[in-house]
Write a structure and sequence with these properties.
The chain has 602 residues and is α/β, with parallel strands linked by helices. It has helices at residues 9-23, 26-40, 42-58, 63-113, 124-127, 129-133, 141-169, 171-197, 199-217, 222-227, 231-283, 288-330, 390-397, 420-425, 441-446, 454-463, 467-471, 494-508, 524-532, 534-538, 573-579, 582-601; strands at residues 350-358, 365-374, 379-384, 405-410, 413-414, 427-430, 512-516, 542-546, 558-563, 566-571. It starts with 8 loop residues before the first helix and ends with a helix.
């Protein structure tokens, strides 16, 4: 049994029309003219047979001349109306496409602003897939409904006028056509409800199929696939997921196919009723010209009723997805935060007070009752084993995740009170996974497309040792990176990308600097250069530096060592070495391997 879900279609359509009036009011003028022209068009084909047959039956000497004039007039009017209908439809199409793209832009902005935990939720896209479907193409969702709303009034106007003509013949014909309309609406709604209920399952299966398709075509997996013989495993898994997807679509198509028999039966009943009444009236003395007119009117009305039914059913069905889109856009998904503005005239002090945290959807705590203060102007090194929570600490202090228990304060202000955008603006961060955008070098460094300070870009590139590399590029700072948008774009090395990310953090010049393994892709000399200039890079700001290489922590004021149980050791390098605890052991082990590597190199 298909579950029926009601939703406020009227409010959805009202909101869509209000948005159209705000963003593209000119489309309403085009719509009015299109409606009048399109509604008048079918009456030419209804009137022509009656006029032709009437002249043939008149027996007048000049009937052939009048028939030619009637035919000529028909083709002129039909051509004129047809031209304007097509022209207005195309002009309106462009404006309606613009409206969909505006919705798409809004949903993309929303996705980039929602609370970060959603970005790490594997099921997020499946959960909101119905909302995203609404902006995916020209033929469904937002734009599909706009097109139907643009076309439907003309169809309804023509239907009403044709119904008056056919109703003059017999109300029974109208009843039969109405039965056909009801069957189309019912079966269409049933089919759409089924597809709507299966959308999450369909989205999940489509995601799995796409994963294997993308993996097979992604050259970055090429070495592993060949060296470890993964081809057959990928092929078999891909085939299994495709089969599941096929079975699901076969189920949906089978249900819709069976519903189609209801429409077919109703159409046959309506046609039999129409032809039976027309034939009976003609046998009873109705002129053949009238028979031709009523037959054409009935057939045309049947077509228009089908169009109206299909369009209304489409609007009702696709309106569900637009409703989900509005729900997604209206929902506060953590992107707003509190009312407090950004701190702009001071560096930061971060206080973790009795903080416990576990990731959403899990019950395994990363921290329990953590107490830690990062003082203003302090350079803190965070070290520890993999999985100890070093990166999680950074995510919490920058507000990417909310604590499970306890409180984080920034300069005495609870972190939850900050506006999210204001909070993010207070940090210059370099993460281990560097993301270079398909923008120019200067746009990548500035993190924006306009109002760029080129002198500040040049300074940031100079400070990270990337100036000579950029100057050697054909377009210098205007050189496009990656080859996604521009096939002549430049692909930087891993180390150069990491330097670019550090330059981006320097350009931002925020209140606090956070570096999560910022030199992982750099060679030893480039890494040493970054370390030597670290104090100049942070310029007295509070700085947190995460690293697995303990030798790099000596330039920091304090060191915080984390293990699987949270904060285990805290102090200066000298204090922790004198303590001869976990930090001492890790430092000595790394130092032994470093000396061994140097000796082997010699």
């Amino acid at each position: 049994m298909v579950e029926r879900r009601s939703y406020p279609l009227g409010s959805v359509l009202k909101r869509m029309l209000q948005n159209a009036w705000q963003k593209s009011p000119g489309v309403f003028g085009i719509f009015v003219v299109y409606t009048l022209v399109t509604a008048a068009y079918p009456f030419l084909s209804v009137a022509l047979p009656k006029a032709m047959l009437g002249e043939l039956q008149s027996g007048a000497a000049a009937r052939w001349e009048r028939i030619l004039w009637i035919a000529a007039g028909y083709f002129v009017l039909a051509g004129t109306l047809g031209f304007w209908r097509t022209f207005l439809e195309r002009v309106g199409y462009e404006k309606l496409s613009f409206l969909r793209l505006d919705y798409l832009k809004g949903s993309c902005v929303k996705l980039m602003e929602i609370a970060y935990p959603h970005a790490e939720d594997a099921h997020f896209m499946e959960k909101y897939d119905k909302a995203f479907i609404a902006t995916q193409s020209n033929d469904n969702g937002v734009e599909g409904i706009y097109h139907k709303l643009f076309e439907l009034p003309a169809v309804l106007l023509a239907t009403g006028a044709l119904g008056a003509v056919v109703g003059h013949l017999s109300l029974w014909v109208l009843l039969g056509l109405g039965l056909n309309l009801a069957a189309i609406l019912w079966s269409g709604r049933r089919g759409q409800c089924l597809r709507y209920e299966k959308k999450e399952e369909e989205a999940r299966q489509r995601r799995r199929v796409n994963y294997y398709s993308q993996t097979a075509g992604d050259f970055s997996y090429g070495k592993d696939i060949r060296l470890y013989g993964l081809k057959e495993r990928i092929r078999e898994n891909h085939a299994q997921e495709i089969e599941k997807y096929r079975v699901l679509n076969q189920l949906l198509a089978g249900r819709e196919y069976r519903l189609g028999f209801v429409c077919l039966a109703a159409a046959l009943a309506g046609d039999l009723l129409t032809y039976g009444i027309l034939i009976g009236r003609t046998l009873g003395g109705m002129p053949i010209a009238d028979f031709s007119m009523y037959l054409t009117a009935s057939l045309t009305l049947s077509v228009y009723l089908r169009q109206a039914a299909d369009q209304m059913s489409f609007i009702v069905g696709e309106g569900q997805y637009v409703h989900e889109l509005y729900r997604f856009m209206d929902l506060d998904m953590g992107e707003k935060g509190g009312p407090h503005p950004a701190i702009t005239d001071d560096t930061l002090e971060i206080v973790f007070e009795d903080v416990s945290f576990c990731y959403p959807g899990t019950d395994q705590y990363i921290f329990q009752h953590l107490n830690l203060t990062i003082h203003k102007g302090e350079r803190l090194a965070v070290v520890g084993i993999n999985g100890a929570g070093k990166t999680t600490l950074v995510k919490l202090m920058m507000g990417l995740f909310d604590v499970t228990e306890g409180e984080i304060r920034i300069n005495g202000i609870p972190i939850k009170e900050f506006d999210k955008k204001a909070l993010y603006s207070m940090f210059s961060a370099v993460f281990q996974d560097v993301n270079v955008m398909a923008f120019t070098v200067r746009e990548n460094v500035a993190g924006r497309l306009d109002d760029i300070d080129d002198a500040q870009v040049a300074s940031a590139l100079e400070r990270v040792g990337l100036s000579q590399t950029v100057e050697a590029l054909p377009g210098k700072t205007e050189q496009m990176l990656l080859k996604v948008i521009d096939e002549t774009g430049t692909m930087l090395s891993g180390g150069q990308n990491q330097k670019l990310a550090i330059a981006r953090a320097l350009y931002k010049d925020a209140c606090m600097v956070v570096m999560d393994e910022p030199t992982a892709a750099l060679d030893a000399l480039a890494e040493a250069e970054i370390y030597e200039n670290f104090s100049e890079l942070v310029r007295g700001r509070t700085a947190v530096y995460i690293s697995h290489r303990l030798a790099s922590t000596r330039f920091c004021d304090h060191i915080a060592l984390f293990d699987g149980d949270g904060l285990k050791e805290y102090g200066t390098h000298e204090e922790l070495m004198a303590k001869k605890g976990s930090y001492y052991e890790m430092f000595m082990v790394q130092g032994k391997y470093y000396k061994q590597a140097v000796q082997e190199g010699e």
